[in-house]
Amino acid sequence: MIRTPALFINVLIVAVCGLVYELLAGTLASYVLGDSVKQFSLVIGLYLSAMGVGAWLSGYIEKQLARAFIEVEIAVGLLGGVSAPVLFLTFSKQFWFHPMLYAMVFAIGVLVGLELPLLMRILRDHLNFKDLVSRALAIDYIGALLASLLFPLLLMPQLGLIRTSLLFGMLNAGIALWGTWALEPLLTRGIASLRGRSVFVIVLLAIGLIKAEYLTSLSEDNLFVDPIVFAQSSPYQRIVITNNNAGFQLHLNGNLQFSSADEYRYHEALVHPVLSAAQGPRRVLVLGGGDGLALREILRYSTVEHVTLVDLDPAMTDLSKKFSPLAKLNGGALADPRVEVINQDAMIWLETTVQPYDAAIIDFPDPNNYALGKLYTTRFYRMLARRLTPSAKVGVQCTSPLFARQSYWCIIRTLEAAGFHVRPYQMTVPSFGVWGFALAGRQPVELPSRLPEQLKFLDLPTLQSMFVFSIDMSPVTVEINRLDNQSLVHYYESEWKHWN
Question: Tell me, what's the pLDDT at 137?
Answer without folding.
Answer: 72
